[in-house]
Structure formats: structure tokens, C-alpha cells
């Protein structure tokens, strides 16, 4: 497993120079992998256009690595491209450009569950297969969705991590999300609230604020909120790019040990905080695997071999991935990163 490694000294650089550094790295990585896959594509005209929410997140850089791995195994070409920021209009425009080029299939991680449906339907009308991975759109806009973990499991996991790490389920808690329209984050938050209401009725979700998938903005949102609400018990980060930013805010305010931070985390970004104890644990899945699995599922869709009635889909080294509904495939259970296991991961 390989990916992008970010050490502690680089965290502020990631925040302040995101456009120049991470985007450049993501673009170079995407180009390198795409070029590497062109040789096998010559024997097959299949082109899968794959879109992340945005290209400059290490999570999506890792997903592209998995996608290119699968492309090489299947002898097809994967074109990985997307907007710089979590921009719905840019995603829609890119889908339309792929339709004009008549790619074979389009696989999208959506910034909005509804706004992209018209563009995805235009692709379908043009005979292009469509699927989603990581973040879904309405069912009318795609044939199948690869879900990284079930929404109830993610909601339960994040609430239980907070209760363990904060040592309490009572009080006010802040949620930092991606953008307010993000489909997967909204479902996770819904499940968090549902689970907490049943098991921890004293847990109050005081606010849900967007960090716009930006580390520096997430830090500033947390700084402003915690200064205005000093009694806050903890902060849930339901997007991995927010977690290091929120942790920096908590450190800057001298609130380590008083305000607990948990949620999603990319190992390369959270490793220093796990090691110094300001973060006890965070959850995610292997983004390399979700990129890899998405391409295998899309190829099965193109081949006409994707059969929900069978209950499974063959996905290379991942084995058989299970259908959890007629149009949703599950990658697996969330993984918990701690100081004891984070060194095993390099994405």
C-alpha cells in the first residue's frame, strides 16, 4: 500500500499552500498513473472517467492509485479528474465534457446528491454507464453506488469513539462537516444523531458547521466556535481533511484534554496527533481500496455481469464485495486508527 505521507512539520504548509502544493501533487500523481495505464488501454478502447469530490485531498490521491491499479489489471484506461475545490458546478461541467467525448463510463464521488443528477442522466441518455463511489447521487443518476461503510455503522462508530475518548456522553458537541450539501456526511450526521438519541440522550449536537473540505478553514471555524462556546465537550470531524485543522485549533486555544476531537482521519495527516496524544483515535477505510473496487464494479457494469441478485460482485484482490441493497455495494467495515497501528499505513 502506498500513498501520500504528510509529517507534522508540513501540516501548516498543507493549510496555507493547498492550491500550489497538494493540487500540484495530485495532478502530477494522476498524470503519472494515467500515463502508466495507457499501454494496456491500447488493446481495449474502454475508458472510465472517474471523478473525486476534488483532486487536492490526499484521500482522493490514494483513491486514484487504487483505480489505476485496477485499470492495469483489467486492461482498460481510467481518466481521473475533478474540480480543485468541492465545487458542484465544476463537477457537472466535467461530466458534460465526458459525455461529449463519449467515454465508456463515468464514476463519481458527488459533492451534492441532487444537483449532479441531471448531468448523470445526460450521460445515461448518451449511452454512458454511470456509477457513484464514496458519495452518492439520487438513484435516477446512476446504476450502482459503492459505499465505503454503512451509514448506521459510521454514525455509531463516531459517537462511540467520542464517548470513549471524552469519557462522557453528556454536554454540547460541535460537528465540522464538508459542505452542507455533501450526501455521505449528511447521512452520517443523521445516523449519529439517531444513535445518540437512543443510547446517549444527554449528547447534544449544538451546531453543524462546514469546513468546505479545507484544512485552514476548518481550523478557523473551530477556533471561532470554541472561543464563543467554551463549554463545548467535543468536536466531531466528519471529513478527514478537517481533523488536523480542528486539532490545531484546540492546541492553539490550550484545550487539549478539555475538548475532545474525533471522527474521520487520513493516517498521514493525523499520525502526529495520535503520537502526541491530542487525538486518541479516528476512523476511515482504505481509500486505495475504494478506488480499486469502484473500477472493478464499473467494469462489471460495462460488461453486463453486475448482478445484484447474486448478492456479490467480484473485485480483484478485494474478493467478493457484497450488495447490501439492489443498487448498493459495500466496501467493508470502518477501520479505527490509533497510535499503535497508524504506522502500518502510508496514505
CATH architecture verdict of the largest domain: 3-Layer(aba) Sandwich
Please give the oligomerization state of what you see. Answer: single chain
Largest sheet: 8 strands, mixed
Instruction: Quote the distance from N terminus to C terminus.
Output: 8 Å
CATH C-level name of the largest domain: Alpha Beta
Computed over alpha carbons, the radius of gyration is: 20 Å
Number of individual domains: 2
| SSE string, helices as H and strands as E | HHEHEHEHEEHEHEHEHEHEHEEEE
Summarize the structure in words:
The structure is a single chain. The protein has two domains: 8-149 and 286-333, Response regulator (Rossmann fold, 3-Layer(aba) Sandwich), CATH 3.40.50; 151-284, Response regulator (Rossmann fold, 3-Layer(aba) Sandwich). 44% of the residues lie in helices and 18% in strands. The chain has eleven helices and 14 strands. It has helices at residues 11-16, 22-41, 58-74, 88-101, 117-125, 151-166, 183-199, 215-228, 242-252, 267-276, 287-303, and strands spanning 47-51, 77-80, 105-108, 129-133, 144-147, 171-177, 203-210, 234-237, 260-263, 282-284, 312-314, 320-325, 328-330, 335-337. Strand 3, helix 5 (117-125) and strand 4 (129-133) form a beta-alpha-beta unit. The longest helix has 20 residues, at 22-41.
Amino acid at each position: 500500500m502506498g500513498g501520500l505521507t504528510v509529517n507534522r512539520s508540513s501540516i501548516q504548509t498543507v493549510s496555507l499552500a493547498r492550491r500550489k502544493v497538494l493540487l500540484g501533487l495530485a495532478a502530477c500523481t494522476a498524470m503519472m498513473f494515467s500515463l502508466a495505464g495507457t499501454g494496456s488501454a491500447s488493446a481495449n478502447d474502454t475508458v472510465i472517467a472517474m471523478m473525486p469530490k476534488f483532486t487536492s485531498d490526499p484521500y482522493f490521491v490514494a483513491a486514484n492509485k487504487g483505480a489505476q491499479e485496477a485499470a492495469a489489471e483489467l486492461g482498460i484506461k481510467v481518466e481521473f479528474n475533478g474540480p480543485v475545490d468541492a465545487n458542484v458546478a465544476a463537477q457537472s461541467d466535467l461530466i458534460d465534457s465526458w459525455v461529449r467525448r463519449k467515454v465508456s463510463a463515468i464514476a463519481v464521488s458527488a459533492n451534492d446528491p441532487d444537483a449532479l443528477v441531471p448531468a448523470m442522466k445526460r450521460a445515461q441518455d448518451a449511452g454512458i454507464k454511470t456509477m457513484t463511489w464514496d458519495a452518492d447521487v439520487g438513484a435516477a443518476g446512476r446504476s450502482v453506488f459503492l459505499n465505503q461503510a454503512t451509514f448506521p455503522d459510521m454514525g455509531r462508530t463516531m459517537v462511540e469513539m467520542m464517548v470513549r475518548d471524552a469519557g462522557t456522553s453528556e454536554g454540547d458537541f460541535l460537528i465540522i462537516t464538508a459542505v452542507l450539501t455533501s450526501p455521505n456526511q449528511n447521512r452520517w450526521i443523521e445516523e449519529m444523531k439517531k444513535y445518540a438519541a437512543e443510547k446517549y440522550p444527554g449528547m447534544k449536537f449544538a451546531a453543524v458547521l462546514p469546513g468546505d473540505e479545507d484544512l485552514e478553514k476548518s481550523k478557523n471555524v473551530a477556533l471561532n466556535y470554541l472561543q464563543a462556546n467554551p463549554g463545548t465537550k467535543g468536536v466531531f470531524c466528519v471529513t478527514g481533511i478537517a481533523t488536523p485543522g480542528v486539532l490545531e485549533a484546540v492546541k492553539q486555544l490550550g484545550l487539549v484534554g478539555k475538548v475532545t476531537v474525533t471522527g474521520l482521519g487520513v493516517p498521514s495527516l493525523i499520525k502526529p496527533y495520535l503520537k502526541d496524544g491530542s487525538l486518541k483515535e479516528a476512523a476511515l477505510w482504505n481509500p486505495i481500496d475504494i478506488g480499486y473496487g469502484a473500477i472493478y464494479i464499473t467494469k462489471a457494469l460495462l460488461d453486463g455481469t453486475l448482478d445484484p441478485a447474486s448478492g456479490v460482485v467480484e473485485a480483484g484482490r478485494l474478493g467478493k464485495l457484497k450488495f447490501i441493497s439492489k443498487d448498493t455495494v459495500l466496501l467493508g467495515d470502518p477501520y479505527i486508527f490509533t497510535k499503535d497501528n497508524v504506522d502500518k499505513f502510508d496514505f
